[in-house]
Design a protein that fits this description.
This protein has helices at about 10-25, 30-40, 45-50, 55-70, 90-100, and strands at about 45, 75-80, 80-85. It has about 100 residues and is α+β, with helices and mostly antiparallel strands.
Length: about 100
C-alpha cells in the first residue's frame, strides 16, 4: 500500500521525523554495513559483528545503540550475549517512505 503524503500535517510531520531518524542512523557507512549484515543474517550476536568488522567491540555496540534507538533494529539479551536483528516493521516503513518520495 503506497504511503499517502497528503495526510494531516501532524501525520506528515511524524512521518518526516521518523524517516529523518532512519536516514540519520544509516548515515554512517559502518552502520549501513551492519544493517546490511543483519538483513542478510536475519539475526546476529554482537560478537559476530565485531569479528566481521575492523572495529572495537565498544564501537560496534555504540553503532548498534544508535540503530536500535532509531527503531531500525531490535536486540535481545541471552546471558552475556546480545543478539540483534532488523525490525521487520522498520524495513516495511523504510520501503514505503522511500517509495513515496
Amino acid at each position: 500500500m503506497p504511503l499517502a503524503w497528503k495526510s494531516k500535517p501532524e501525520a506528515e510531520a511524524q512521518i518526516e521525523s521518523e524517516l529523518a531518524e532512519y536516514f540519520k542512523a544509516l548515515g554512517h557507512p559502518i552502520r549501513m554495513r551492519i544493517f546490511r549484515m543483519l538483513i542478510d543474517r536475519e539475526s546476529c550476536i554482537c560478537g559476530d559483528l565485531v569479528d566481521a568488522l575492523p572495529l572495537a567491540q565498544s564501537t560496534v555496540s555504540q553503532h548498534l545503540k544508535v540503530m536500535k534507538n532509531a527503531g531500525l533494529i531490535q536486540g535481545t539479551v541471552d546471558g552475556p550475549r546480545r543478539c540483534y536483528g532488523v525490525d521487520p516493521r522498520a524495513i516495511e516503513r523504510l520501503h514505503r517512505y522511500v517509495s513515496a518520495l
